[in-house]
Design a protein that fits this description.
By secondary structure, this protein is of the alpha/beta class. Helices cover 44% and strands 15% of the residues. The protein is built from twelve helices and ten strands.
């Protein structure tokens, strides 16, 4: 486990972060507490949630855990605002998140997605006000393209506003779009990168087969919108190549895909979503074992 500077902030985040999307939605409070307890015991200090996760249920569970464990000072709490990002919406969302989380300041408050319907200047000025009011220590964004992030950074610099210190993109063996422009931009501007979905919402675990039925109860069954993102020729080519490497090495597809994501250059922290403590351990094992240069090169070529 490593601890890395997030952008130009004073925050040092664990190389593995805990994505809290399952809390209060896919697992109950007791199971969520067990996952957070285990993650904390293994050194994870980054908790990433959002108002959209379970309609606020995730934030509420995280807040109750922070209070019950007295662990506010040692954890870095991140959340996000979504929807129509008017200044009023951003302010009221932050206030509601603070109440659900039961904390005085959000360590990292992020725009969940780029909203072209509201002038970017208005959104960024509202974020700056959150920092000035003490509602947020730092601000960031999620699911921004490189040009959107670059435009935001320029406007913040011109106006002397607090800048976006991090971006949260999807990144795995199938979806590598950030390598073209976003990662070089972040390296140049010292922007933290908190990547998510290292297993492609479960696609890279090997449970799905080309021309096979989607297993009932899996994420791709419950949320069919995931299917077009991965069920295509490139996706199947990658997963079949990953399966071959798994059989060749005796290492699970999960471990290989996770180790690849964790060890990629330019990534500050990789978020893992977990329904149980065993999935937290899987990520730690993948990080500990890592990949040889030859194996990383072979997976890159997929």
């Amino acid at each position: 486990m490593e601890y890395r500077a997030l952008g130009k902030t004073a925050l040092r985040v664990s190389s593995l972060g805990l994505g809290c999307v399952t809390f209060g939605r896919e697992i109950d409070e007791a199971a969520s507490f067990a996952v957070m307890d285990h993650a904390r015991s293994r050194g994870i200090n980054l908790l990433d949630t959002a108002e959209a996760y379970g309609g606020g249920a995730s934030e509420t569970v995280v807040g109750r855990w922070l209070k019950a464990r007295g662990s506010r000072e040692e954890m870095i709490v991140c959340t996000k605002v979504s929807g129509n990002l008017t200044p009023e919406r951003i302010l009221t969302s932050a206030q509601a998140s603070l109440q659900r989380l039961g904390i005085e300041t959000i360590d990292l408050f992020q725009l969940h997605r780029f909203d072209p319907s509201v002038p970017l200047e208005d959104q960024l000025e509202a974020l700056n006000q959150l920092v000035q009011k003490g509602y947020a220590r730092y601000i960031g964004c999620s699911n921004f393209a490189a040009w959107q992030l670059a435009k935001a950074l320029w406007k913040q610099d011109v106006n002397g506003w607090a800048r976006l210190e991090s971006v949260q993109p999807i990144y795995n063996l199938v979806d590598r779009n950030i390598e073209r422009e976003l990662l070089p931009l972040c390296a140049d501007q010292q922007i933290g990168v908190i990547s998510y979905s290292p297993l492609g919402a479960g696609f890279l675990t090997g449970k799905y087969r080309r021309d096979g039925e989607v297993p009932k109860g899996t994420r791709f069954d419950v949320i069919p919108g995931h299917q077009p993102l991965y069920f295509h020729e490139t996706g199947w080519h990658v997963v079949e190549g990953l399966r071959a490497k798994s059989e060749e090495t005796g290492r699970s597809m999960i471990q290989l895909a996770m180790a690849w994501a964790i060890g990629q250059p330019g990534i500050t922290s990789v978020l893992i979503g977990a329904r149980g403590t065993d999935q937290v351990d899987q990520a730690f094992e993948a990080e500990a074992v890592g990949l040889s240069e030859e194996m990383r090169a072979a997976l890159n070529q997929l």
